[in-house]
Amino acid sequence: MKIQFNNDREYDIIAIGRACIDLNAAEYNRPMEETMTFIKYVGGSPANIAIGGAKLGLKAGFIGKISDDQHGRFIKKYMNDVGIDTSNIVVDKEGHKVGLTFTEIKSPEECSILMYREEVADLYLTPSEVNENYIRKSKILLVSGTALAKSPSREAVLKAVALAKKNDVKVIFELDYRPYSWASADETAVYYSLVAELADVVIGTRDEYDVMENRTDGKNEETINYLFNHSPELIVIKHGVEGSYAYTKSGETFKGQAYKTKVLKTFGAGDSYASAFLYALITGKDIETALKFGSASASIVVSKHSSSEAMPTVEEIEELITVNA
Amino acid sequence: MKIQFNNDREYDIIAIGRACIDLNAAEYNRPMEETMTFIKYVGGSPANIAIGGAKLGLKAGFIGKISDDQHGRFIKKYMNDVGIDTSNIVVDKEGHKVGLTFTEIKSPEECSILMYREEVADLYLTPSEVNENYIRKSKILLVSGTALAKSPSREAVLKAVALAKKNDVKVIFELDYRPYSWASADETAVYYSLVAELADVVIGTRDEYDVMENRTDGKNEETINYLFNHSPELIVIKHGVEGSYAYTKSGETFKGQAYKTKVLKTFGAGDSYASAFLYALITGKDIETALKFGSASASIVVSKHSSSEAMPTVEEIEELITVNA
Amino acid sequence: MKIQFNNDREYDIIAIGRACIDLNAAEYNRPMEETMTFIKYVGGSPANIAIGGAKLGLKAGFIGKISDDQHGRFIKKYMNDVGIDTSNIVVDKEGHKVGLTFTEIKSPEECSILMYREEVADLYLTPSEVNENYIRKSKILLVSGTALAKSPSREAVLKAVALAKKNDVKVIFELDYRPYSWASADETAVYYSLVAELADVVIGTRDEYDVMENRTDGKNEETINYLFNHSPELIVIKHGVEGSYAYTKSGETFKGQAYKTKVLKTFGAGDSYASAFLYALITGKDIETALKFGSASASIVVSKHSSSEAMPTVEEIEELITVNA
Amino acid sequence: MKIQFNNDREYDIIAIGRACIDLNAAEYNRPMEETMTFIKYVGGSPANIAIGGAKLGLKAGFIGKISDDQHGRFIKKYMNDVGIDTSNIVVDKEGHKVGLTFTEIKSPEECSILMYREEVADLYLTPSEVNENYIRKSKILLVSGTALAKSPSREAVLKAVALAKKNDVKVIFELDYRPYSWASADETAVYYSLVAELADVVIGTRDEYDVMENRTDGKNEETINYLFNHSPELIVIKHGVEGSYAYTKSGETFKGQAYKTKVLKTFGAGDSYASAFLYALITGKDIETALKFGSASASIVVSKHSSSEAMPTVEEIEELITVNA
């Protein structure tokens, strides 16, 4: 099975949600308390996916809200420089700051993060800042689950999803669950299932699907039975080192393997996976190849220092796949 | 056309949303500033509809949150006394009060109201307080638009709608727009269209549909073209004294006339309309008759002092219809 | 001892704080749940004291914030009609409502109240709405403790106290403790002691002084030792039916007796006490007489239906004192 | 004139207020947008003053609230390591983070900063976390104006000031005005004058005194006339490169000169000034010498990379004073 996209669209992918700052430890093998130097990168799941897509050659756009300060200007310039259309990135005029994520690089197994997400600009995107004329120019609208955590960003995303569906833009829902911003598990479950039911493709870890279903120990079989009763035609469920599964509404199941690599840190894996997986779908590759692209991209990023700057090229991905074939 | 209900359900109708206190002027023909005495009634659109339904003989239940004080206890007792099941009315334990509505009775054309709706208990209903086992016992879930105005009530209602659909309970969406509680017109439009698209029956004034569409001067034709692309099978649009229209998905249009009466005050008209209209549908009457029931009930209530206490019996409604036939 | 006032001032007393609506049960001897009719009065401790003072012939002014609605207009008109200068009453332009107090009249011992104090207009008075030119026209600034409960009213009052002291206006601090609005006992204690240390006269119940000292079972001796180290020259501590004590910095102690009466309800006692006590001080009576005036006024008000409308005249007070001499 | 301290106290100085993280640009001569690497230090005015004092040999303590995370632990360890008593630093249990200050080092004249101060832990210090037994062990309580910006920190500081006065601990008020956290200029003026009137020593820039007086173009003469009517016995007003003035209640005026230095960045000047000025007072030096200590310390810190780590020793200060004598 292949997902069919509207090929007459100007953009391959428009992502909506947060663009933030990552401050990654410059010193390795020590806890954050002892880390004295941090290096600045653009971060945030949908921003990383757009950056990853752009580096792979996709025509990408971004809808979001950034701060009217030094960090906001850095983000916009960086995204512009990698070729992302930033015309629909709004500058906040009420003093909200962009989110921050400090990371430590203690060991491949332990990389704690420390997030600053109070009153962040990205969650102040309003429905009136979401433009139908922009969304309908794209093949894909990529929605990050975190953007549903608070009003008015929540409503901006719900409006974007409605406009995408009205204009035959495929909705990709990356669950991207960050407990920090949410009021309650009940609330998360309400919006995650609402948007998952409306999406065309849903991507997440098994744990994230459990959040959507407000349960523990969920089963893939039950999840896909539930979601295939609604809009989704493709569901990707990731099980960490055990690999990932792609299910199609028509009944197929595909299994993807993780590639071995020398892991520096684990963050960034999900975003690089999503960008390469979507790149493969958009360029007409089959689902099995798309799973390989996702895994290869994730494997490259976890061996490097950043999430955004480390996003690989198509050549790097293909080489890794070939080497491991 | 007739709406088909699940006849093996214990409840005819379960309403979700606010139950409040009305304080109606005891002195007529003067502005509220000069009104010194007020009489207390139960109020709030979904509570009034449940009360109206119960007085007509429907088996009704209610999902909502009330204050842990004298007003909350009055509301629960009153609803119990008219035969409503109150087992799913939750008592707030965080000090939230029930809403208040002071009314003046200045003239049939001028009846200003004054609402106390800050941090009211009804908007603190949480998703975890909505029970699937309760909802699936009903033919109808009646949703009031105001309950969507704020979290966590908003999520409680979205969950209730999802549970109703999952369990084949008809969702009736009474738009019931009250600008007071909403953050923005954009936000209202997002949730009104979201729930209207999921509902089986939508009832509102032309102005309320304009709120849903975030526009002015909307046209019935466009509204029904939009909504019939989604779940609704019956749409009622009220045009005040010019009467109301009922549209079916199968293409029929019915017009209902307002009955002449001696108007004391205008509030309460919408709730009495909805309760009698739904009573007629549930008891298997055709849509034309249901429109008459709605108009007759409204005409009776606007001639009396309260919204809840004044709800008519089936005999009163039928007599009025016969007299005006 | 007599308190010395600046006799060249235009106003005898300017009160700062809340003006609200009381909704008193029109039906007696029943709980509020069964009370169906309520009668509207102006309420709120500093408003009642100003009204009481005006009825006794004092030239009174008021600084406060009221709602831009029917209740706000009623309050302003009522205060104007009893002769209070309302030029410094500000009308809220952000939708805040005036507070409400529902009362039941169950028995002389049991009169529960139900308060609506969420986001009330009086607590939104800002420092910039407090005018030095107004305050310096008065002999007395009467400060109600409840006005310290939240910002920006808290800062408006702190500014008013600073301006009063700068302009040789006597500061009377009526502790008027209402737990509802306060974040914590610690916070109350901080502001109560701050203002009590700056005041010239402090009036409150023994329980309210305990709140100021953040303790239980406080002793009058310790309280006056503490406060007389600061600005106060007169301290009144009320012990309910056991009567009240007035202490002077120069070392005198006076005891006041409560007058027997047929009690209808207990609310309103403190405000009527304060207004008559201050009237006596301002008109040059000695402290013993002032205590009698306070007790007589309280005894009259608790036998009547309202707190404000029931405020007695000088003749009524003097007659009661004479009868009981 | 010399300030007299209680020499039998265990601590020379206890500071109350914020302890934060500074993230200083590791790359010089470029705007923050282009700065990619940041170095972490402890920051926050009262923390810096305590650190500066401890490096000069004072026995220092700190009252404040830090986050329960990697940054909070770093701060506490750093302060411990320089010899500050941290027994009264409270760890926040509600998820509040410590404040952050990103700095650029563009040129000696231009060093923009970017602050993260939303819902920061330091402003959640409560009155109940301020202990009388601790405060009364100190000669000095150093109060930072920023700690007055929000409740409950505001009340914690007001309580600390009251306890200091009750226990004969000198209150030093460092105005330390940061507009970011304040609701309005009116509010700042209310609390700045309230605490300045209660303090023994007030230190600030001319601009900060204007904030206290809620005016522009204030005059030193008027400021000291006002404050010497209340508690202060020593007032320091800084005029940047033009030097600073110290005024005593007994009528003396002293002028301090700024020392020439090679400026790297300007932040940190005020804190290093205060710590060395107070060190000199506490160790019994006269006011003229204290002014020199303050200027010398500031001159050393602005030539170095951090605010806290760069705090000088007594020897460094004395050498600079000697060289410039």
Automatic annotation (TrEMBL), chains A, B, C, D:
It catalyses: 5-dehydro-2-deoxy-D-gluconate + ATP = 6-phospho-5-dehydro-2-deoxy-D-gluconate + ADP + H(+). NCBIfam families: myo_inos_iolC_N. The keyword Transferase applies. Belongs to the carbohydrate kinase PfkB family. Keywords: ATP-binding, Kinase, Nucleotide-binding, Transferase. Pfam families: PfkB (PF00294). It comes from the Bacteria. HAMAP family: IolC. Coiled coil: none annotated. Pathway: Polyol metabolism; myo-inositol degradation into acetyl-CoA; acetyl-CoA from myo-inositol: step 5/7. SUPFAM superfamilies: Ribokinase-like. Catalyzes the phosphorylation of 5-dehydro-2-deoxy-D-gluconate (2-deoxy-5-keto-D-gluconate or DKG) to 6-phospho-5-dehydro-2-deoxy-D-gluconate (DKGP). One of its GO terms (molecular function) is 5-dehydro-2-deoxygluconokinase activity. It is an enzyme of class 2 (transferase). Its EC number is 2.7.1.92. Gene3D superfamilies: 3.40.1190.20, putative 5-dehydro-2- deoxygluconokinase (2.20.150.10). Residues 13-313 form the Carbohydrate kinase PfkB domain. This is 5-dehydro-2-deoxygluconokinase.
